[in-house]
Amino acid sequence: MKHGILPRQNIEQLVAKGHILGLQDDADHPPSLQPASLDLCLGDTALRLRASFLPGGGVSVESAVENIVMHRVDLKGGAVLETGCVYLIPLRESLNLPTDIVGLANPKSSTGRLDVFTRVICDGGEQFDTIPAGYKGPLYMEVAPRTFPILVRPGDRLGQMRFRHGPHNNLRTQHVSIDLKGDGTGSPIGYRAKRHSGLVDIRGLKAHQASEFWEPLTAPNGTLVLDPEEFYILASREAVEIPVGEAAEMAPIAPEIGEFRAHYAGFFDPGFGVSEAGGEGSRAVLEVRGRDVPFLLRHGQAVAKLVFEPMAERPDQLYGAQGSHYQSQGLRLSKHFTSD
Question: What sequence ranges are listed for the domain 2'-deoxycytidine 5'-triphosphate deaminase N-terminal (predicted)?
Answer without folding.
Answer: 3-166
